[in-house]
Design goal:
Layout lengths: L1 H11 L1 H40 L3 H51 E3 L3 E3 L1 H9 L2 H19 L4 H14 L7 H9 L3 E4 L5 E4 L3 H19 L6
Antiparallel strand pairs: 1-2, 3-4
Helix pairs in contact: 1-2, 3-8, 5-6, 5-8, 6-8
């Protein structure tokens, strides 16, 4: 390369040599840019073709099968939820009926609506039920809000059911401890006689349910209008 440049310099001058170098550099740059542009264009076309081909017939079939399976699963889950809801509702009704027959007779009286009697008020105070409700009222109210009771009777039943379904929560530990250590209580009958009865957790839940009912109805006066 050096003899060529020396020959050009000696016969055509330094300016001509510089011009040749500049022109050569420009031409080389143009060629390189052209090659790069062609490669980029081909790559873009290849990507575009791949995008146009997505999803391919094979994957389209798989996607459609997955969609169908998802729809079937969702329908099955919906049926299971309905059956579970019915089962829970039936269980709650049976349990509520059992508690009301046992605890309701001993700790409340039907005064339209049902209210705690003297035995119920004493049990509520002795077990620490007032403090329990004050500390956890918002928790139970929030749970009842989700169920959207429409009548006062619904509210009464749901208050009892909500308390039942959360007895495994840590908040109930002090109440369970109190029940475990509580002696038999002397209860007054409506006719003035007395009887001795052991207190269980159902009794405590029942006496808690009526103040919880009253609080919810206080927040939703439209229910009893």
């Amino acid at each position: 390369m050096e003899p060529v440049t020396r020959f050009i310099e000696q016969n055509f001058g330094l300016s001509f040599l510089v011009g040749v170098i500049v022109v050569g550099t420009v031409i080389s740059g143009i060629v390189w840019i052209t090659i790069w542009a062609v490669k980029l264009t081909n790559k873009h076309k290849d990507v575009s073709k791949r995008i146009d081909d997505v999803p391919c017939p094979h994957h389209t079939s798989k996607i459609e099968r997955h969609d169908e399976q998802f729809a079937d699963t969702r329908a099955l889950m919906s049926r299971m939820e309905g059956q579970l809801e019915l089962w829970v509702q039936n269980s709650i009704e049976k349990s509520n009926s059992k508690i009301k027959k046992k605890s309701g007779l001993a700790f409340s009286a039907k005064h339209s609506p049902r209210q705690l009697n003297g035995n119920g008020i004493e049990l509520l105070n002795d077990c620490g039920g007032k403090d329990f409700l004050e500390a956890n009222m918002s928790f139970f109210i929030d749970k009842m809000e989700k169920l959207k009771p429409k009548t006062a009777l619904d509210v009464e039943d749901m208050a009892l059911a909500i308390l039942q379904t959360h007895t495994n929560e840590d908040m109930f530990i002090p109440l369970k401890s109190w029940v475990y250590n509580a002696p038999s209580r002397e209860l007054k009958n409506p006719n003035g006689s007395t009887k001795t009865q052991d207190v269980d957790l159902d009794d405590v839940i029942f006496v808690l349910s009526l103040p919880l009912r009253d609080k919810y109805l206080e927040l939703h006066p439209e229910i009893i209008k």
